[in-house]
Amino acid sequence: MELKKISLSEIIVNKNDNVRENYGDLEKLQNSMSEMKENLVPILVVPEKGKYKLVYGYRRFECAKNLGWDEIKCIVQKEDNPDIRFLMMYHENIGREDLKWHEESKALALKRKIDGKLKKEKEFVSDEGKERGISSRAIEKILQGAKIIKEYPSLKNESSRNHAIEKYSKIKKLEDDIKEKIKKEEISIDEALKQDFKKEKKRKIDKNKALVDELKKDSEHYEKESKEAKEKLKEYKKDIFESVKKSIKEERIEKGIWLEEEVEAMIDAAVTCESFGNKDEMDDKECKECKKTDVYNKCQFWYERKNKS
Fold this sequence. Notes:
Helix content: 55-70%
Structural class: alpha/beta
Distance between the termini: 143 Å
């Protein structure tokens, strides 16, 4: 490597090689470089087609242009290895506070691609977590951020990685044609989710309405059937009652079939006559204790049959 000053006009800048999509706030750095009259930390370049290609130090290079400098202090790396060049740029930028979440995800995914030649996914995640002092789960989430913005680029506009991942899970539930429109940026993510929410809400309302209508219909049907059943039962009871009433009284009593008024009379007799249980042994209808003669029970019918015979 060689340290020297190189004219800004001889340095080729390709922003696509940078992990950062924009330079952020340059004011503080620019003021420092202006005060020192040079860049204390050199930028890194590699020879390319008679000129030099910028590897890292994009912000310092931009500040030098803004300050109107003709040249800038550089470290010249003789051999250009794309993987080494990226890793150097990665380590320079990854710890910056103003690095956006999607820039960090994109950078880590590229590093994973390079390290993937030597390491398996689990080993890479573990080593990267230890190197940066964060959990393996956090590293996996950063890598997930790169996957979702690759599939849906507009997700990078979300305020945080967590918000982007949350919206991604909602997008996956949308219909395929809507997802294609989001990818082609024919519709915004928020608008697509808003329309889906309204559609789902209407679907639930229609479903509930259909259920209510069905229950109402069933209720009316059962109510009608219940009325008809009650009427039929009423007629049936009436028919039985009339049939029983017309039957021979003695035969009914022997079979244990009593009319309601007969039962009431028997209960009344039991209450008014203390020797009710002994009446089968009586020679007449009169109770020996209370002298009551209208006791209404089976012995009455026994006497009636006896008198008839």
